[in-house]
Amino acid sequence: MKIQNVFFATAMSGMMTLCSCSKEVMNNNWMERNNRLTVLTRSDGENGDKVIATPVRIYVFNSEEQCVTTKTQDGVDPTFSIELPEGEYDIYAIGGADEDCLVLPTLENAEKTSVISLKEGEMFGDLMTAHSSVTLTKGSSNTTTMEMKRNVCQIVSITITGVPEEAEVVSVSIAPFYDSILLDGTYQGESGKCTIPLEKQGDGSTWKNDAANIYLLPSVGKPTISIMIDDSTYSYLCEKELSANRRISIDGTYTNVGVVFTGTITGIAWDEEETVSFNFTDDDLVTTNNNEEVINVTIPEIGSLYEGCYVLAVNGKQVTILSSIEENKIIKYDDTREVKEQKINNKLHNWSVPNVTATWELPSEAIINILNNEKSHITSPTLGSKSYFCYTNSKIMAFTIKDSGVEYSSSITNNEYLCPVATLTFN
Q1: What is the torsion angle, in degrees rounded to the nearest 10, for the CA atoms of residue 353, residue 357, residue 361 and residue 365?
Q2: How far apart are CA 169 and CA 167, in angstroms?
Q3: 101 near 119, Cβ under 8 Å?
Q4: Could you give the count of Cα atoms lying within 13 Å of 127 in the half-sphere of its Cβ?
Q5: Partner of 207 for a Cys bridge, out of 170, 229, 324, 416, CB 3.0 to 4.6 A?
Q6: What distances in angstroms separate CA 113 from CA 244, 282, 335, 380, one per listed residue?
Q7: Distance CA 133, CA 153 (A)
Q8: pTM for the whole structure
Q9: How far apart are CA 220 and CA 224, in angstroms?
Q10: How far lies 241's CA from each of 43, 174, 324, 357, in Å?
Q11: How much is the pLDDT for 111?
Q12: What are all long-range contacts of 286-290, with beta carbons under 8 Å and residues at least 24 apart?
């Protein structure tokens, strides 16, 4: 499952067939195990092929949020048999838990919100998750069925016809996608990008990747599809999100007025189809530098304003700006952590500043250090009197700039303000 210029899978007890492979890891510092729990895994019914991605790994958490055992197994329709003390448990399952490709939590460090990410140079395969809560009483025998839901979409083919025969390189890029998933099945990170190289066919004008079979986490909102033909790039903002459990095929035709594309997205059961059509014309042709839009104006200086936004950093033609707009009351006190982060990410994805076209993101620690150094010069927003959302230590946090320095908090409330940053490319 190595990358080819692109980015981007249940346990059986001894009673199951010998062709399966099972591995169990337990925490030995727990009570007498006098109850047997049987865990059945199955497709949730929306997966049209009814096949569970393997190997499957389950994580069992007790009422104190401690992971007390993990089990991993290959096999069809895996079943787990576990002996546990009486009590309440949360069970999380990962289908497609391939340790060769994924960084998976261990028994010692597993939390319900542990991040599952790709190892360097690897790509996602079919990936599913499930959760179940059970209560065991003394001497009981219990069975729980976990319905595995698919968490990835699949790009199955891309074909572009009518390309000028003199073209030397054609590829398609789609972004942004989530770049990691948590043990509880929620998504994290918004930097995922898929770039798919196409191969020139015998007729000289058709380029395709006919069996891409690329698995990706869902898109972050409506993604942008870019078609690169040598030095020219055509971009289009999709009308729909690319959701989990969908197969995607893109067929396009290059014409003198641009590129006309039709995209076919198969539905949630892998076998229901809906067609999404969109056009590329010369109006969608953008000047690019490393696939970023280039702004044809004089590069602003650090400390100046660009469209009302404070310029924080200039690195060659790359300019980082701070939004001139801020907003709070985005989340509620009683929202779960998951809901809070989703609301922040949704607001961030739809962030808009007049006359600025950019991908906005939460400040990193490096950016916050710049904000701290420049606080006396930044008049809007007034950094010294408020707390703001940021992204550091691989999660959304809050920071406040005070006279004594920067203070961070892992707790996020509706008092924090969203004031993102963006990096622009100038010509």
Answers
A1: -90
A2: 6
A3: yes
A4: 31
A5: 170
A6: 19, 45, 16, 35
A7: 27
A8: 0.58
A9: 10
A10: 23, 11, 28, 20
A11: 94
A12: 286/233, 286/234, 286/235, 287/427, 288/231, 288/233, 289/317, 289/425, 289/427, 290/425
